[in-house]
Write a structure and sequence with these properties.
This protein has 127 residues and is α+β, with helices and mostly antiparallel strands. It has 3 helices and 5 strands. A hairpin with a 7-residue loop joins β3 and β4. 24% of the residues are buried.
Length: 127
């Protein structure tokens, strides 16, 4: 994968669709599983940006464990913690921690728990 001409940070702040219902989530997860190789998974609060994308098997494992985590933290009918640039052909996805959502706006907006992209990530943490 290569750097995006617009820039990773611009993509993070771009236009996204909320994945509000579980059927939408399942549609997105299927699309991700079908094109599993080549995704960068960045957890900005815990580590620097990854230098290499996940393999297909690593991505499928990430999808499986993340789905369990999200289903445990979200309500029965609503997902609401996932945002994507496209449900059918995703290239960039933000996943927030459902346990930290819904609080009052104290300070700046929280970073996503995970950022999934086909674009090489850059650090979002200011020094």
């Amino acid at each position: 994968m290569e750097n995006h001409p617009v820039g990773y940070k611009a993509l993070v702040n771009g236009r996204f669709t909320g994945v509000l219902r579980w059927p939408q989530f399942e549609q997105l997860w299927r699309a991700l599983g079908e094109g599993a190789a080549g995704w960068y998974v960045y957890e900005p609060e815990k580590a620097g940006p990854p230098e290499t994308p996940l393999s297909a098997s690593q991505m499928k494992e990430f999808l499986s464990t993340t789905e369990i985590y999200l289903r445990d933290g979200c309500t029965d009918t609503r997902c609401g913690a996932v945002y994507t640039d496209s449900l059918d052909q995703p290239q960039f996805i933000k996943i927030y921690n459902p346990r930290l959502m819904g609080g009052c706006g104290m300070g700046k907006a929280p970073l996503p728990q995970w950022l999934l992209s086909r674009v090489v990530p850059v650090s979002l943490i200011e020094d």
